UniProtKB/TrEMBL annotation:
Cofactor: Mg(2+)
Pathway(s) the chain acts in: Cofactor biosynthesis; molybdopterin biosynthesis
Function noted in UniProt: Catalyzes the insertion of molybdate into adenylated molybdopterin with the concomitant release of AMP.
UniProt GO cellular component terms: cytosol
Species of origin: Alteromonas hispanica
Gene Ontology BP terms: Mo-molybdopterin cofactor biosynthetic process
Protein's name according to its UniProt entry: Molybdopterin molybdenumtransferase
PROSITE patterns: MOCF_BIOSYNTHESIS_2 (PS01079)
Amino acid sequence: MSTSWLSLEDALIKARATAHAVSDVEYVSLAKAHRRVVVEDIIASTNVPPWDNSSMDGYAIHVTAESSSLANDNTKATDSSGKTFTVQGVITAGDRATTPLHSEHAYKIMTGAPIPQGANAVVMLENTSSSDTNTVTVHTLPTAGENIRVKANDIASGEVLIRKGTLLRAEHLMLLSSQGLNTLPVYRKLRAGIVATGNELAAPGEACSDTQIFESNRAGISAIVEDENVEIIDFGIVKDDKASLSDLFHQASNTVDIMISSGGVSVGDADYVKDVIDSMGSIDFWKIAVKPGKPFALGKLDDTVFCGLPGNPVSSFVTAKLLVLPIIRKMQGRQDDLGLFTVTATLTKDIKRRPGRRDFQRALMSTDTQGNLVVTPLKNQSSGVMTSITSANCFMVVHEELAELNKGDAIPVIPFT
């Protein structure tokens, strides 16, 4: 087992290589498909729109090249009296004209209704006037094709709508609904086990001795993971002894796809987790050049991926975001959005630090009076102070080679979402 520190990039490469996508497929209704991952390309079977239709309420007419030319000149309008058409009928959405448009006639038409045969433009209702139901006066002539949504201009039958490995969001479900789809093939939900280790830990709501603290990491890690639409199995708190840990991880290897523990992966005398995992399976690495979060362990228990997070709450939170989420997304079969969203902001104060590790400082990002993004690191950056997370709204990323930064420098920032 290597003891050298890995860069974050190398750690992510190794982590994603270790993680394999689940292969089990299930069919779910569209109503249950939100934040599920599709297992194949979804191909359009229907044109959208299925026919030329009106993009607004108005009147469908036929315009000639001459009248279109007039409409396109600098005046854009006819004289104040306009041009009068005989109203041939009314076409509502869900209906269609039964006869073609006659010369010098107009169909009153509603948004979304099919364009009648013979019409090639729609006049906005606001550009017309009418004193009776039989005639309409057009005060501004449209150009040919104006206010018409052409058949298949959104989706053409046969094109790829959604690529394999896409995490389905609300916009995808609306798109699929427009195709009349109701059932989709998706990968089954990932099963993630969460456990905290340590004799010093008491569960919230239970008695806590004067030598214990309330365990806090499971709740936060579970919430981070659950946001990825993963099934959570809570293994509770396990004591720091090899027998208990061996029993736990044996059970986990038969139950979950990924096991996430917090605590027990550092170099203390009672830090048994990585040794137990190494004896039962394998440990790929356990030191990463990041701050906070250096003691992060990655390994395997049979087909179960193991992620050992540090016990300090901020370190646990940071490594869950940086490393556990990309692993989970790879295991879900996703081909998109494997990383964390980053923006650039201007630093508001000087920083001096010891180089060597990439530092994810907790910070507050805002906009200045000119609307530019600015960022200010919080004063307390201790890995044991969880209020440095709750008081922040972003991570400010200081790269490992930098010993100091100056006020006004541009710096990458990862907003909390």
